[in-house]
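Practice record 12: protein with zinc ion.
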Amino acid sequence: MRAMVLHQQREPLRLEERPRPEPGPGQVLLRVRACAVCRTDLHVIDGELPRPKLPLVPGHEIVGTVERGGSLFEPGARVGVPWLAWTDGTCAYCRTARENLCDAARFTGYDVDGGYAEYAVADERYCFALPDSYDDLHAAPLLCAGLIGYRTLRLAGEAERVGLYGFGAAAHLVAQVALHQGRRVFAFTRPGDAEGQRFARELGVEWAGGSDQMPPEPLDAALVFAPVGALVPAALRATAKGGTVVAGGIHMSEIPAFPYEALWGERIIRSVANLTRDDGHAFLALAVLMKLRVEVQRFPLEEASSAVEALRAGRVRGAAVLVP
Ligand SMILES: [Zn+2]
Ligand SMILES: [Zn+2]
């Protein structure tokens, strides 16, 4: 099979011919139909996340059809594979419905090979059945951008005025979910990104501006999707008393010091880590119910590096998706 392979961090991906992976007990062999490109993939490739499996096939937003293996899905069934690949089921976190924090968790496209390839294997217990209302291309970004974005919004509580910092794959989906829930949404893009701000307004947000601007009124919550630590104090300053700033990414540059006054007034800063399977089921059901619109930019598998560069440069409208 063809695969895009990372041999060393900070080196480009290489297109290679590799043997098809063999499914082990409880695993399915999937023919990959589409795999979205996540910001986390950039952190893995760039060496910002330590000790990935090497060589590695990145990619953790996989849509595939079951070729064989496992017992939960029929051959031909279409499934989604998310970032959470495996947990031990026994640690203190797993036993308290927090498998996203499992000490021994393994992650797709990081600890195990992912979906930048023609085939992949996955533990069937962590795969999701996918709704028919999304084709392969549009289902892929639901699996991380949508799902972890949804968890990020959930952790913001009942906030009415929600700010989204970084208007990429996750934010364009979360904005719609938040609006569907009757919240008010404010989008913050890179300063001067008129196209990104137009995209946000098209999706119905009531205000869009640069991350260097203050919103027209204070926020009750701010979700930070861009991996830029300086956005945390900026978001805090835009947040009303009692508000929450949620960091939605797996990596962020260092957060600069800020005066206690910015946190005072019972403001909260927290992060979101990974996902639980319950998040996945809840989010996919909601996406169908509300007819969530997914914006994608398609790249052939061989052009994974172009997709990665486009994402890095902020040139992707919605989500980049690889098709083998
Ligand atoms: Zn991701
Ligand atoms: Zn565990």
